[in-house]
Amino acid sequence: MSQRTRAGLLALCLLAVLWGTAAFVPLPYVTYYPGPTVDILADDDGDETVRVTGHKAYYDDGELRMTTVYVSQPEDDVTLPELLRAYFDPDAAVWPRSSIYAPDETDESTDRESAVAMLSSQDTAIAAALTELGEDIDPIVEVLDVTPGLPADGRLEVRDVLLKVGDTDISDAQDVVDAVDGFEAGEPIPFVVRRGDEQLTVEVTPERVGGDVRVGITPGVGFDFPFRVSVDIDDNIGGPSAGLMMALAIYDTLTPGSLTKGLDVAGTGTITPAGEVGPIGGIQQKIAAARDAGAELFLVPADNCDGIGGVDPGDMRLARATTMHQAVETLAEWVDDPDAELPSCEDTAS
Q1: What digits encode the pLDDT tens for the residues 50-71?
Q2: In this structure, is residue 203 part of a structural domain?
Q3: What's the CA gap between 96 and 330, in Å, rounded?
Q4: Quick one: 334 and 238 in the same domain?
C-alpha cells in the first residue's frame, strides 16, 4: 500500500470519527414540530371539556380545535441529525436557543411558566366569552402558582383570591410584590384570602432567596364570574396560545345552537378580557397540525399573518382573526356559505 493510499485512508477514518462525534454534540438550537390538536367541544366519557355551573349549557355538534406545537425543551440535546431532520421537514422549524429560552432556563421552570400561562389564559378566555355575551366582569388578584419548597407551599393555594397582604389592600399583582418586599425575612406576613366561599387569614414567613424576600407565589389577574365555568385541558398542555379557541368554545357552550354547525374549525391566538386576539409562536406548525387533523377552517391571529408564507394549508381555509367578536362573525358567515369572502391575511398585506 502506497503512502498516498495510507494517508487517504487515514483521512477518511478521521473524517468518519469527526462526523460520528458531531452527530452526538448538542447544538444551541430549538426544534418546532406540529403537535396534537384538541377539540375543546369534545367530551371524555361523558365529561365535557367546558363545564358550566349556574348557567344553562348547550352541548352541540361541531369541533373547535386548539392547536399545539412540540418544542424541544431547554435541557434537550439537539444534535446535528435532529437539526437536519427538522431543517428539511417543510412543517418543522429551527430557531436559535437564545431566541426562545433564557440562558438559565430549565425544563422545570419552563413547565411551571407554561402551566401558569395556561391557567391565566383560561380565566381570560372565560372573561372574553362572557364579555362578548354582555356580562360585566370584575377583576381580582389570585394565586396562579405556588412554588414547592418555599414558605407559601402548604399555606396558600392556587386560585386563592388575595384580598390583603399585611396592611396593604390588594388591587393588582404589583401590590402583592410591593407588600411582601416591605417585610423582612423571618417576619410572618398575614395574607387575607378568599378560598372558595370562605375568607381566611394565613400567615406565611418569607425567606431570602437570591437577595430577595420571597414567599413563593405567582400572583396574577383573575375574575369574579357570575357563574362557574371551567375548561378541562390536559396538564401537559401549557401556554397562553389557546385563548381564542377556548373563548369561542365557552361562548358556543353558553349559547343555543352550534357555532360551527357541525363543522371542524381550528385556530390559535392569545386573548384579552376585552376580546382582542394576540400573536403566538409556531404558527406554521399549528396550521400544519390542523390541516393534518382534518380541520376545514383555521383562524390566524392578525399579527401572525406575516409568518404564514410558505405553509401548505391543503384544502383548509385560513381566516384572519383580530378580535373575539370578529371571529364569531367570521364563523357565522362561513357556516352559512363555505365560499363566503372572509377576513384574510392577504387583505392585511395589501
Answers
A1: 999 999 999 988 899 999 999 9
A2: yes
A3: 36
A4: yes
- State the pairing for strand pair 264-267/297-301: parallel
CATH number, domain at 187? 2.30.42.10
Question: DSSP assignment, residue 27?
Answer: B
User: How many CA atoms does the CB half-sphere of 314 hold within 13 Å?
Assistant: 14
Task: Classify the C-alpha dihedral 200-203-207-213 as positive or negative.
Answer: positive
Residue at grid coordinates 396593604: 168
Each residue's pLDDT tens digit, 333-350? 999 999 999 999 987 544
| Residue 290 cell numbers, joined | 390542523
Residues 239, 81: Cα–Cα separation, whole Å = 28
Residue 314: count of CB within 10 angstroms of its CB:
12
> What's phi and psi for 209, nearest 5 deg?
-125, 115
Beta carbons within 10 angstroms of residue 243's beta carbon: 30
Is residue 22 domain-resident? no
User: Residue 302's domain is classified under what CATH number?
Assistant: 3.30.230
pTM, two decimal places: 0.86
> What are the grid coordinates assigned to 138, written together?
370584575
Q: Which domain holds residue 87?
A: 29-71+78-96+104-134+226-349
Same domain, 256 and 345: yes
